[in-house]
Amino acid sequence: MMKVLPVFAVAVTAFSAQAQDFTGGDPEAGERVFRRCAACHAVGEDAQSRVGPELNQLFGRVPASVEGFSYSTAMQEFGETNVWDTETLHAYLQAPRDVVPGTKMAFPGLRKDEEVVDLLAYLAQYDDEGLTVE
């Protein structure tokens, strides 16, 4: 049993940096939730940073790492010790200012857990070039 645990830990770590399967999350519903984000953020092949950074290949990304985007000092400091994974994104999307006090993101957060899970399922579809991953 002890030999299985390290192998499992490595597999989980490797998996977390790739597009993830959000069992229970509905990408189509997440696309509708993303419409609230689209004024500031973009995903897809032609995604460019706007008021907020583009969100392709978000999972496994270091916060404050999109080249050319001007991040708050708070987000830069957050990025020194964190990676965007399911847990971190879930917390941030529910209460951005609580997770990163001093963030420039004006959106107050999603209050419904289902909306967060659906949004994460939607965002997980996009690779680093903005192509959807099956």
From TrEMBL:
Gene3D superfamilies, alphabetized: Cytochrome c-like domain
InterPro entries assigned to the protein according to its UniProt record, in alphabetical order: Cyt_c-like_dom (IPR009056), Cyt_c-like_dom_sf (IPR036909), Cyt_c_1A/1B (IPR002327)
PROSITE patterns: CYTC
Cytochrome c domain: residues covered: 25-127
Signal peptide limits: 1-19
Gene Ontology terms for molecular function: electron transfer activity; heme binding; metal ion binding
SUPFAM superfamilies per the UniProt record, alphabetical: Cytochrome c
One Pfam short name: Cytochrom_C
Name recorded for this polypeptide: Cytochrome c2
